Amino acid sequence: MRFLFLFSLVLILHSACAAEEQIPLDPVTGMKMTGDWEIVRNHCIICHSPKTFLQQRGTESTWGDTLVWMQKHGGLWKLEPAVEKSIITYLAANYGPGDKFRRAPIPLSLMPANPYATEARLEAEAKKKAGLIPTAPPAGK
Ligand code: HEC
Fold first, then answer.
1. How far apart are CA 55 and CA 120, in angstroms?
2. Domain residue limits at 26
């Protein structure tokens, strides 16, 4: 009897740990069913497959930019600030950079010469060198 009790305790503890490690996936969208996932689903799979964003990784800042880009170019409507926060928090927490994030871009100074340079491109590059074209965003951006 005591053995049976211990055995079931071990089983219960085991399943509790497994549940913590593995977030169940929604069979329809493949999204991790945790936090505000339904808010994200309701807003983000109307126009395209969830794969469009599930294969992306990003910090809160990256996901925030994605939403702005969606609003400018994808037709996503203006969101209530609380809804926007829920979406960004969910995406960054569950689809954050992790270990497999893309490497940082190579600095321009280390890039090889452009083999497809056109006259217009050369002119723009010369202007950049002369300091006539800003290379960094204005301060405060
Ligand atoms: C009103 C329609 C619409 C809604 C709603 C929408 N999107 Fe999009 N989304 C688009 C369109 C259109 C594109 C393709 C844009 C392009 O390539 O110029 C796109 C592309 C994307 C991409 C780029 C995928 C890739 O690999 O190129 C991501 C990421 C994305 N959407 C995320 C989201 C997220 C997150 C939401 C929810 C907040 C969302 N979208 C809601 C219309 C929408």
1. 36
2. 19-94
CB 36 within 8 A of CB 43: no
Instruction: Ligand 1, residue 44: give the atom nearest the CA.
Output: 37
| Number of domains the chain contains | 1
Choice between 95 and 138, residue whose per-residue pLDDT is larger: 95
CA distance 108 to 22: 41
pLDDT higher than 90, residue 125: no
Amino acid type, 93: A
Over 50: is that where the pLDDT of 17 sits?
Answer: no
| Residue bearing the CA closest to ligand 1, atom 14 | 74
Report residue 87's pLDDT band, with 50, 70 and 90 as the boundaries.
very high
Q: Which amino acid type is present at position 115?
A: P
Is residue 64 a part of any domain in this protein? yes
Closest to 52 measured CA to CA, from 60, 44, 62: 44
Phi/psi for 109 (5° steps) reads -65, -20
CA atoms within 13 A on the CB side of 47: 11
Q: What are the residues facing 32 on neighbouring strands?
A: 25
Tell me if 78 CB under 6 Å of ligand 1.
Answer: no
